[in-house]
Task: structure prediction
Amino acid sequence: MERLGTGIGWRPEIADAVERMPGIDWLEVVAENTCPGHLPQSLLRLRERGVTVVPHGVSLGLGGADRPDEGRLTALAERAQVLGAPLVTEHIAFVRAGGPLTASPRLEAGHLLPVPRTRDSLAVLCENVRIAQDALPVPLAVENIAALIAWPGEEMTEGQFLYELADRTGVRLLIDVANLHTNHVNRGEDPAEALAGLPLEAIAYVHVAGGFERDGVWHDSHAHPVPRPVLDILTDLASRVSPPGVLLERDENFPEPAELESELAAIGEAVEKGGGARASTPSVTVATSVTVATETPSAPAPNATPAPDTGSAPAPAPAPAPDADSAAHQQTAPDAAPTPDSTARPQKAPDADADSAPAPDAGSDPDPTTAAAPADDLPRQRLALAQTALLSALVAGTPVPEGFDRVRVGVQTRALAAKRADVVAKVAPDLPVILGPAYRAAFLAYAHGHPMPDGYRRDALNFAEQVLLAGHLEDAAARRRLREWWLERSGPAPRSQRPTVRLARATRRVLLRR
Result:
């Protein structure tokens, strides 16, 4: 893996500051927020200066029960090619559920939700990652996510789950140390033990971000300064391996450039401190094999049901991986990752090869109401039912599935609704202006009974329509403006560009000239 160095998440709000910021080696952009044919001038100038740009996807849903959408994969591949990116990244998460696998309406989360660490989930994730790898022109790296809730009956720790994923697919890992801290606070998982179980040689780069704690729950906001515990986890990681790249994420509440530069300096100091500890520790040689292709246990989550004891011995922690600087000279195929010696590998989960059978053709998911599913699709159907039940509880108000912490599910429900309100306000900035201070309360009331159908722009239109139909908007001027806004955007083309409207306006101009 090439050395990336120090990076920052590029956002339009800080574009000018990033261009002037010293010591920035690379950038990450949200893939869905970039248009290949209309890249921002700031981004083009940075690329001309030789700054590496990596597209970071948020909507693929590799951890979902469905196979990855071909259109989304094509769009991600296009962005990688246009940006000249050395890799692309996505998340180990699900973002939608329902559909043919469950014979139920499709539901969108509008956010990254955790996958259960089970054999079924791992089998589906591995196949989805392979599909994505085959469709992308550059290597793929996947990110561990932050979670407010834990699945009951999980069968693996995060370290074991990620190790199996990397071992069986060759995918690289994007390790977010802020998310490790989030899971420590919210799920009782020890970040040091999570790091000890990871295949550190598979790390592509590292994310660092801020958040805040409220009522014992850590919210990964990306809108607050990076706290000391997150920097300490970064130091711990750097004491085990030299990360190829470290990137600061900030999505909202952007501070002055000097504060961002100060955070980057603190990140650099944390990495340097870890590197010093690594240099002073006697190295342990670990044998690695490279496949050349053509191309103490963590604390249980507060609401998790312990997995049954299989009688197997505890998995040993992997030995320290070789320093990434020395490994950089190895020739590794894009879709293959170095595999640690089996003596240093955590023990595989039972039925680890359950997903090794050839995958059925994409799009062949059977309708469970008319035919029995092929054996290969049974894990998908089981996962689909579980994820749909959870997402329905989160966004549609159905009962909370058995085994989940109802309080935490409530916290997640409110967080999803708040995020929808924030994103819709960005996608359709006229709505908060038209509705004024009443916007947020009105949107949260709407979100309670209306799951997001298909993206935030459609969500904004549906919200405006519901406000108009409800008839609670007493301000006549605001009601008129909202109606005009909705009419302009609700058809297949802007109302001002529709033939009948153009004809009416042309006729009016002729009549006025007489």
Summary: Confidence is low (pLDDT under 50) at residues 284-373. The first strand starts at residue 5 and ends at 9. Residues 5-344 form a domain with the TIM Barrel fold (CATH 3.20.20.150).
